Amino acid sequence: MKDKLSEALSVPVPKKRAGARCTCGAYWQGECGCSGVDWTDPELVDLRSEVAGLKRDMESLQEDIVALGDENDDLLAEIDRRDKLEGLSEWWGQVHINGSFTVNRYYNDGDLYKARENGSAKAIYGPFRALHEPMALVIIQEMYQRDNSINN
After folding, report:
1. Helix (H, G, I), strand (E, B) or coil at 129
2. Which residue in 51, 57, 69, 104 has a CA-CA distance of 20 to 30 Å to 129?
3. Residue 115 and residue 124: Cα distance in Å, rounded?
4. Can you list the residues of the chain whose pLDDT is less than 50?
5. What is the C-alpha separation between 125 and 53, in angstroms, rounded?
């Protein structure tokens, strides 16, 4: 039967992770009497460095996205300017369960979302560009006929 002293001696001693300036020969930070010594696990230091690098990469990508967003905003503004000169507007439309067609001016995706959630439409189309409401109605009717000829 082992005595308590031999059991205590068999406990593994933590590996020495001496900092760059440890001069006292300590096995761990609790034994070290040196001042200003970093006993942080090298793996943790590497992970922190990797996280810092990933953060820099993420910030760089965010800057790129913002820059592309500005370019995209400029392009969208130019398209809107041309559409206004041509008199085009954005529309969306739906084919109701009873077979009737309706078209509405498109403002954002919330319009389409509400129509889908309502459940009274067989089909929803848009957004698309048209000169005026009668033209938008013709476009949605053609889209519906095209889809039905493909499905049949």
Report:
1. strand
2. 69
3. 8
4. 1, 13-18
5. 45
Q: Residue 135 in 3-state DSSP?
A: helix
**pLDDT for the residue numbered 149:** 81
Q: What are phi and psi of 115, to 5 degrees?
A: -65, -40
Which of 102, 98, 96, 146 lies closest to 123, judged by CA? 96
Asked if 9 and 17 count as a contact pair (C-beta separation under 8 A), the reply is no
Dihedral angle sign, alpha carbons of residues 103, 104, 107, 108 = negative
Is the model's pTM score more than 0.85? no
In this structure, are residues 144 and 125 in contact, taking their beta carbons and an 8 Å threshold?
yes
Three-state DSSP state, 138: helix
Q: Which residue has the tokens 């996280």?
A: 51
Q: How far apart are CA 126 and CA 140, in angstroms?
A: 9
Q: Check residue 85 and give its pLDDT.
A: 66
Provide the pLDDT for residue 62.
Answer: 80
Ordered by start, the domain boundaries in the chain are 40-86, 88-151
C-alpha dihedral, 117 to 122 to 128 to 131, nearest 10°: -120
